[in-house]
Amino acid sequence: MANDLKEDGNSAFKAGNMVLAKGYYSDALGMLVEPESQGGEDAVGIVFSDQDKKQLDSVVAALNMNLANVAMRQEKFQDAIEYCTKSLERVDTNPKTFFRRGSCYLIQGYAKEAKADLIKANQLDPNNAVIRQKLAEAQKRLDKDLDKTKKAFGGMINTGGVYDDKSSIKPEVKHEDKSGLPRVWLDIKIGQSEAKRVTIALYNDILPRTCENFRALCTGEKGKGELGKPLHFQTRTACFIDWYLG
Question: What's the whole-model pTM score?
Fold first, then answer.
């Protein structure tokens, strides 16, 4: 019966009737999780096997995701966030759930929370370009908010150098396929030992400004700065490079 209601909800959603779709999804969810009157998981005397519990969690998570989709269509983004959270309480390995909640957080103005969810989505689905683009959007929003804060408080904030905020912008993401990423290399020599080459992939779809700065430091194309100091890594010491790479 719950599956029939879910399918009815899907049909209503495809037809653009969000009110009817929400009603079907909510009724299906009620049958699965409400107490004994509905025969759901809280019904007295009903014991689920581990396999049944896993299947139930999967269906409940999917229904909450469907309700989140309805809420997003209705531009009720806070409701969508709550439905995604309920879905994750059942199944926390679906990148779509983290992506949708992160997208809603971003719309609501919670860039920090959005970034955390989108990083998790990227970890679960590292080759998804749409997730990486949305993560870059969240990072851009954080950078913009930081700039506003610095301008608002002026000298009260230590602006430091160009890399003062690198700890806050380093995403914990991983690309399974690095073939499309640009690369640079450094020949590093320690003491009298033979120089060894280190090749570095630049995640320019996540941190475009940082990657471009680092690429220019590797090529030396910027020459010297206003104070006459070189804007490159040539002949620099290993400890300086180690500090920069952090």
Answer: 0.59
